[in-house]
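**Entry details**
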Amino acid sequence: MEALKLNPNYENALIQKGFAQERLGDKEEAYKTFDSVTKINPKSFLGWKNKMTVSKMLDNYDRALVEANEALKIDPKSIGTLNSKVVILLHLKRVDEALESSEIAFSIDSEHASSLYNRACIYALKNNTKDSALNLKKAISIEAKYLEDAKTDKDFDLIRNSEEFKEILGT
């Protein structure tokens, strides 16, 4: 952190400091560090994105949503941030808004496994077995880890006993 000693406003050093604090488990301090980044540079995508990430870790989803929106003003095509926004909206029980954000992510990259999995979750929450199964199958074909995730993800509870879902899980 020599750069911080020379210039306490050095953005990249602050971001690295925030990452270190987060890895050490001090999420509150990490949040403060990332917050200082966005105060120094309100157009710092990484500052807003990392504030959002830490806010999610702290279960502060309302704040995380504001930060996701700020990050997306800077980089509206960030798939990772769009997917994080979907997850945040689902935590806030704002399923229709989550679907809107999911559609944006899908329009940017229709083969992104996380986007497909999120869409599967949204459709399951809307009790739309057909579209949920379609998106889940595609997500699993791209990244097999989603098969294990789907087995325990509560978002699928409404459709868990459907034949389509059981077929995908092999149960």
